[in-house]
Amino acid sequence: WQLLASGRPAEAVMEFRRALDLNPTWIWGYIKMGMAYGVMGDAANTLACVRRADALLAGAPGLPLTQAWLATAELLAGDPARARATLARLADESRTAFVEPVAIAWVHYALGEHDAALTELERGCALRSPLMAALVQVGPYLWRDIAGDPRYEALVRRMGLAGAAS
Question: Are the C-beta atoms of residues 64 and 100 closer than 8 Å to each other?
Answer without folding.
Answer: yes
